[in-house]
């Protein structure tokens, strides 16, 4: 499994709230993080609750990733790819 993008990527932004993750998000997150384990240097989220949930997930522990709340100046432009767990 690997991550392929037409442009250089090193940041993953997971938008939303932990309560909205729905069913089976852990498996999907694991696949995403495994695929991007050597690509995603930074993982941004919208709030501290989401960061805590992701940081406690098997995927983040297994691949030594840490979600942090996005900085105020973070630009989530329309040119970025969107990943959905729906």
Automatic annotation (TrEMBL):
It comes from Mycoplasmopsis synoviae. InterPro entries: MIB_M2 (IPR058860). Residues 2-61 form the Mycoplasma immunoglobulin binding protein M2 domain. This is Mycoplasma immunoglobulin binding protein M2 domain-containing protein.
